[in-house]
Amino acid sequence: MQATIDTQQRILDSARELFFARSYADVGVADICEHAGVKKGSFYHFYPSKQALTLAVLDAHFIDIKEKMIDQAFAEDLPPLARLARFAEMAYQFQKQMSVATGHVLGCPFGNLATELSTQDEPIRERIQQIFSKLQKLVSSVLKAAQARGEVPQEIDAGATAQAMLAYFEGVLLMAKNQNDPELLRHLLPAMAQVRIQRS
To answer: What pTM was computed for the model?
Structure first.
């Protein structure tokens, strides 16, 4: 039983690593199996398709990032807007570590797949949208807490501002990936906390 779980985990971990470091289109089932040290039969025993594996990869990425970054960044030991600053710094540190390890800024695993697949694969697009919606709601709750403390004006639309902040965050990650420069994140991400959308 444990060997079966280990095999499935190796497949999942290999797909996560390869998709993140390369791209969805560039990584085939054979690549994943070779990296995981398993046969194709084992792959299809656990995942009926590459799409099914990708959905599992997205879920695993979100659980991992939530535990290692999001929950820590948005812990309530700091004032609300300071949590956004901590999130920006943690995102920078993560991308910096990956850059040192791989020689490349790898960007956001969700943004990468969204850019590549949103017009091609509806189930994957929907799953990524669900993840972005969770992040947006979290940032919106931080903004509402800041409004309650008088740190953010009441006329700010917390939901729309959270969406704009997430768009800014993803855009900066994309630019840093394209320029292969993690320092761009340290320079630009703190401005995310200054994004404001007025209520109409």
So the answer is: 0.92
